[in-house]
Design a protein that fits this description.
With about 230 residues, the protein is an all-alpha fold. It is built from 10 helices and no strands. It has 2 domains: about 50 residues, Arc Repressor Mutant, subunit A (Orthogonal Bundle); about 160 residues, Orthogonal Bundle (Tetracycline Repressor, domain 2). The longest helix is centred in the N-terminal third of the chain and has 26 residues.
Length: about 230
């Protein structure tokens, strides 16, 4: 009997999460009420609070499952023996692709990771720790291959990479860049300068440099900036 009850709980929990993502996407996170979520999940309002106290908790529950899937997919895609630059760009692109496949989901996810509420801080920290650990493993392996100096401060380097990710994610939502290929091009130049210094020429081929120059002018026009 307990097995049946546990199965029923899992089904109800899944129904709540599925209803939440559907309504968050259609109506927006702020515009969706717990009562609407309960109705869409086919349960009573009192029942939903037995599973989740807030919308943020529902969203974080979904994120945990999705992040697990994203990390597994990333492990399968990234070649552990590829050059460090390629591995880091692949990781950053994996994150961006995962987050931006649903604009509303990505917006809420980024907010919860960057500015978590008191109730979601613990879960957000767990997800953040997984990301930091994964990047750290790549950097440590690069050190063992002599591709990264042993004296490199890995925490600061991870911080640089995370800041680059936030910058490109913001540019995507501001529509400064519009495609994942444009994001990859930007990530490549940013990560190469981070690893080799600001004086390095980020794009080796003339074709890539021309593509970057075109993208850079597009961003500058949209931001109404004048840079040399």
């Amino acid at each position: 009997m307990s097995g049946i009850r546990e199965q029923k709980k899992r089904q109800t929990r899944k129904a709540i999460v599925d209803a939440a993502i559907k309504l968050f996407t259609e109506k927006g996170f702020e515009q969706t009420s717990m009562e609407e979520l309960a109705r869409a999940a086919g349960i009573g309002k009192a029942t939903i609070y037995g599973y989740f106290k807030t919308k943020n908790e529902i969203f974080i529950a979904f994120c945990e499952e999705e992040v697990e899937y994203a990390f597994s997919a990333l492990d399968a895609q990234v070649d552990a023996e590829a050059p460090l630059l390629e591995q880091l760009v692949a990781q950053l692109m994996g994150q961006l692709t995962y987050v931006t496949r649903n604009r509303e989901f990505g917006r809420i996810f980024a907010r919860e990771m960057l500015f978590p509420t008191d109730t979601s801080t613990s879960k957000s920290r767990e997800i953040d720790l997984r990301y930091f650990s994964k990047v750290n493993d790549v950097l440590v392996h690069a050190q063992s291959r002599g591709e990264l100096p042993q004296q490199a401060d890995l925490l600061l380097l991870i911080g640089h990479l995370h800041a680059l990710y936030i910058m490109v994610l913001s540019s995507f939502y501001l529509r400064d860049i519009e495609t994942l290929e444009e994001a990859r091009l930007m990530f490549y130049g940013l990560v190469k300068q981070t690893l080799e210094g600001p004086a390095v020429i980020p794009y080796a081929s003339e074709a890539e440099q021309d593509r970057w120059n075109g993208l850079k002018q597009q961003v500058l026009r949209r931001r109404n900036l004048e840079l040399s």
